[in-house]
Each structure stands twice: as structure tokens, then as C-alpha cells.
């Protein structure tokens, strides 16, 4: 059974996903790409990173994988909106990839391993479908390492609630710090680790981040799960949303999100 996706697919979630590009979310991978490489994008989601990668290696060389038809259609729609044709979009499970051994030169996964039930198993599958000498590239957030200013107890509570819900769904919200260990456990001997951040500190960035965060905690699948499971009352979630918007109004407001990254040689 596929575990629930903690964030869900509400507009507030998708607006964040659609801000992702290869430049701001896969810069560590870009030096390794060139036209003609066969690339698998695991967990292609909103499709914006997929589109950028397709422009580099060639759309006919790209396969995108999503766990269910609804999310696969998001990828198809974005590719079509950007005028990109030729990408193969497949529905399948990261724990049992529906591809031949050594079928790809590059396998990419952005913000995926934190959500799957068995990340080491998923990485082993990515290694299987990568040709010898090819690379598996993964990037995941580390919620425990997120930092912000000014401090606010409501934002501490936001992180506590999200981490609890993600773990209840079988995920690992601190996946970023675990990527290197997971890759070693999956059988990779040659792994290059790195880290990068997203930072929201300008007035415009704070307003966007606070707005989407407020809506996610109070009015999406995450909020519904927290209420349903008795982890929080709706009134508390609404209060956290208010605190996020108050944080955004502070000219000193600063929020940084840490991500772990790996380039693993098959």
C-alpha cells in the first residue's frame, strides 16, 4: 500500500513545487549532465525540474516516474504547458522500479526519499536501473535543521507537528542528513555528499513562504491529518498560520531550509 503524501496536492503545495527549477533545486547535479544521457526522474511531481532536465539531455532521453496517476498527470500537464514533448511519464513504485537493469545513465530524485517507506530499498532500486559508472542523485530537506528569526513558539510547534505527521505516514523528515548513510547501506561505495539551502528573507520571499506555510498547516491534507489524528485542534493550526504571517511582516524575518545532497556512482 502506498503511504499517504503528507503535504497533499492543494494549490498551496503545488505553488511551492512549481517554483522549483533545476537551478534552485538540482544545481549539484547539473555539472554531470550533457545531451544524450538517459535520465530517470523519480518523483517528478509538478514537473518543473523534469522540464529543465529534459532541455539539457533531450526530452526523448527522459523518463519521469510518479507513484499514482494523479501526480503523473501533473508532470504531463507541466511539460505540455512548457511545450516539451517526448518525455515518457510512467506510474510506478520507487521500491520496485518498472525498468530494466542498467537502463539509465542518471537517476534523479528530489524531495522523494523523505516520503517513502523504505529509502534504502528505493536507493538500491535506483542503483539497479543505473548503468555501471552512472550516477544516482538525490536531494532531501532536513526539517530538524531549519532555522528562522525572530523565534516564535508557534513556529517551533509547526515543525513539531509536521515531523510527527510525516513520521506517522512512514516518512523521515530529517532525510537530508541521512542520505549518505542510506546510500552506503544501499550498496554505493562512491558517494559525493553536499548540502545547499533555500533562504526566505526579502519582503517578497517572506510573504510567499509565510502564505504557503500558513495555508499548508491550516487548510490542506496536513492540517486535516493533524486534526483527524488528534495531534492538534483546528484553532491551534489557525494560530500557527497567524504567527507565520506575523513573522513575514517583520523586516528582520529570516528563514532557511537545509537540504542534503548526494551524487552516488553505480
Automatic annotation (TrEMBL):
GO terms for biological process: methylation. The keyword Methyltransferase applies. Keywords: Methyltransferase, Transferase. The lineage of its organism: Bacteria, Bacillati, Actinomycetota, Actinomycetes, Micrococcales. Pfam families: Methyltransf_11. It comes from Brachybacterium equifaecis. Residues 40-137 form the Methyltransferase type domain. This is Methyltransferase domain-containing protein. InterPro entries: Methyltransf_11 (IPR013216), SAM-dependent_MTases_sf (IPR029063).
